[in-house]
Amino acid sequence: MEAIKLGVALPTSGPLASPVNIARVARQAERLGYDSLWTYERLLRPMAALPRPDGGEPERVPEIYRLTYEPLETLSYVAAITERIALGTSVVDALFHPPVVLARRYATLDQLSGGRVIAGLGQGWMPQEFETVNVPMRRIGNGMDEAVAAMRACWGPDPVEYEGRFYRIAPSEVNPKPVQPRIPILLGSITPKGIERAARIADGLNPIALSLEAVTGFAGAFRQAARDNGRDADALSVVARANVPITREPIAEDDRPFLAGSPGQIAEDVKRLEGSGVDHVLFANLAENDIEEELGLLEELKAALTR
Hints:
By secondary structure, the chain is an alpha/beta fold.
């Protein structure tokens, strides 16, 4: 059984977000032997309060979204200062971009990085962002199928041609092409329809690790749906996103979210994922601490995970 791969979110938002800190985390993660670095997309932080998923009083989206560096530009910068570590997005909202534009941006990054790109895509959820890019929210679903198909067409041989309901590409030369024969596409989702879509059209699933039971359930449903669609489920990937903190001291077990806590606690949680269908964990938790503390915790976590 292969070891679970380990990824780190770059500090592209929140108090630690800066070019200097992005570079420091990227270099440290590669030096320590982490497998991947990740960014994400947020177009804006609305002033208006939004409904909460749990039905509570509406509130503004978290302040961490006040500043968010652009994901692909950031990864291009990181590509120039690293050599081997994979570069992923978790996620870029595909419906906010013409597929040919997004495909060329990923292909350019793949060229600049020597074939290290993982294209994690999502559909978006914030009404103000859909309004800003002049895309109707009813495009969620079928529009995602077409966006992925059109991007893959752009990465294929010329002449590229695509004809769909939402997107059209006249027979054209579209370049550059990626270094990789097939840039892996992950879809970020935890809903049954989204998981089924990923199993049908993507190379992997990028769910949030809400709990051990939840994330292993997502992975199992994804791989079963892939088999139901006649695909080789073992060739696909599940990258679990852990939006929880790494802490110096252990967290009491009664209060500890899955994959949160001290390096030792997290290492035990990662071991519990072995054989579950999750093959990659993304630690997306560099937000509030001192940068020296964060870099030290990354080193301790990697040591705990390799014992």
